[in-house]
Amino acid sequence: MKVRRLTSRYLGPRSLAASGSLLLLASCATNAPQDTWQPKGPNAKMIDDLQQPVFAVAGIIGIIVAACVGFAIWRYKDRGQPIPEQTHGKPALEVSLTVIPALILAVVGVFTFRAIFDLARTDDTQLVINVTGQQWWWEYDYPVQNEWGITQPIISSGQLVLPIGTKVLLRETSRDVIHSYWIPALNGKRDAVPGRVHTLRLQADAPGIYAGQCTEFCGLSHANMRMEAVALSDADFAKWVANQQAAYQAPAEGTLAKEGESVFLNQCVRCHQVSGLKRADGSLAIAAPDENVWSGAAPNLTKLMTRNTFAGAMFNLLRDACRDDVWRAESAAFGEKYLGGVDESCLNVNDLRAWLRNAPEVKPMYANPALLTDTNGKYRGMPNLGLSESDIDKLVAYLLTLK
Amino acid sequence: MFKTGSKLFLGLSGFAAFNLVAYVIFVERLAIGGVALSLVFAALTGLAAIVLLINEGDNERQPRDAALIGASLWPLTTVVGIVLLILGLIVAQIYFILGIVVVLAALAEWLVQAWSESASDDPAHNESARQRLLHPIEFPVIATLGLGVVIFSFSRIMLAISKSAGAVSFIVAASLVLLIGALFALRPALKPALVSGICVIGAVGIVAGGIAGAGIGLRSDLAEAAEEGHYLHRECGVEKSKYFDKKAMKNLSLRSNAAAIVELRDGKLSAIMVGFNTPQQLITASRANPVTFIFRNFDPTERRLVASLGNAMAGAPAAESDGEEADHAGKNETCTQLIPKGAEQALTIKYNKPTIAQTEPFTLTVPGVAGQSIEVLVP
Fold first, then answer.
1. Cα separations (Å) of A11 from A4, A15, A69, A73?
2. Are B203 and B256 part of one and the same domain?
3. Does A155 contact chain B (CB < 8 Å)?
4. N or C: which end of chain B has fewer CB atoms below 10 A?
């Protein structure tokens, strides 16, 4: 009796209507960068063109079936009437109910297979990018492709930069566990599996930033393993490529940034590579993530300040106002704003300092020294380096020069 | 005092004691067999004691409804399970797990049987009650075990006979199943005994074949291939194996993993990579992650692919990074075996350091083919 009262009180028509309204309103969100129903490229559009009619057909059939079941329950419920005569089978009805769904599925199947094969094409690729997943960030490396001005491999992380209107092929793999790459506005999901190379086509129609999320549970910070695809016009992409390949510029002597470079060489270079960075003796500083990190890799920080994110795209390098300025820019102005990178006035210094102060505190990672016996002394993620506030000041100043 | 039951168990326990003493004296002291026989002896003695305590066989004290109680194998099965369980603590985990399963199953059966036998005065009703409760569990379990035995036996047959005989056997077996299934469907009036007989004969035939197949072991090519380690031919010497990486591209996992297919054709070496529409002379490989190259030889001479790994310890065959040893005769390189025209072989490498750390570039070359080299860039 009590249960019935509670049920009628909390699950009454008004509660159900309120819940339904909330769901309906939630579907009307305008700021939904990972909405699967808003394709921004031909590959995602192909999926959308398939899922819209299938969703409609499945929805109509679902409603018809639910209505039939409801009608049968209501019409033939036990009212004490005699059991009707039992007959075996009704061939015409049974054949119809088998053939009609089979035909519907066959039609859906034809279009689905065509879309699958079209999405699996690799022979029309215009730009290849290698994508490697590891706990909990994505690495992007651009193989040498002279037609794009890429004369030496470019390596980046956090944001995938691609030219608009170009058939880009991602060659995905993983260094540790299975991850899954998904930027809903540009295409469907594709698993990144250790020991395998999977391909995924991407193409963006217009300049802008398209958000994504790892969709295969991959450990403690799976939910924080994000990605952003940045689409630039051909001219802007060429500028980006040229800048990524530009020589390393050491900070001026006597500056705080120069002191930060020393801190970087003493601490960070054990895992993080900055191309062109040299030690005091003039030798190149070569990072050794394979000796310190379980996955064997740490983000390459060359040109860090040309990206908008850090720590596996979990945190923004730009303050909210500056980030909004880039994200909401018109197509024509987007490239210029994005290529402007991060300067001191726009740097999200609070999150960056918190990260440098104690990374595992702000992003869950297996970076506790007590757990290192399980990984042969190697970290899963960035450990707490125990930097002083003074060192952090210097490092921030140095990182700002990497652009 | 001593009736039939107690005499039986006392006799069996005496026999077990005799065997135990003989085993300890003539075979081995403190061996596993001794432990097992000790447990058997203890179990049988325990059963004899129980029988004596409850005066089984004493007609004067037989309960009124004794006729309702049938013979039961479950006490004995439980004891066997306990023996397995204790043996498993000493020998291997698998026996322990098996013992737990046997004990739990036997106790469940025993409990339900005991409950059903006191359900009513009608033995038929009691048996029906037991069946209604246990058949939905017993039948699927027995069917699964039976199917498992048949499938395992069939796999032993297929591993023992040649490839062509295997294909023929599979076709014959599938055809027989289809024909007999069709016969059963078309003749629903067949006697159940005949249907059961055919099924039992088939199953017994497969199990017997499986036992024979297990006795014969793997066919020769499988046995030789199993003895070869995948990474045991890293010496870049003259040795070659008939089965090593045979038809690499037919191996699904290698095909999916190939970073590039390196072809030697008309004296030229080139790399074919997914996404690139023309053959390449430059490969960009991920750092600290195993990459696999498939080498295809279209040259009339036997050739091998050699990968230089830059400075010492900069790169390593994937297996070495897992702790295996390899001898490169002082050179920091790894290679495929010599393969004839039309053959192909896989080479898996893990480049731990980037190209900028090298004084010599990472390359892929073929000895004897001058002027042909593919550079591997590791960012």
1. 10, 6, 22, 22
2. no
3. yes
4. N
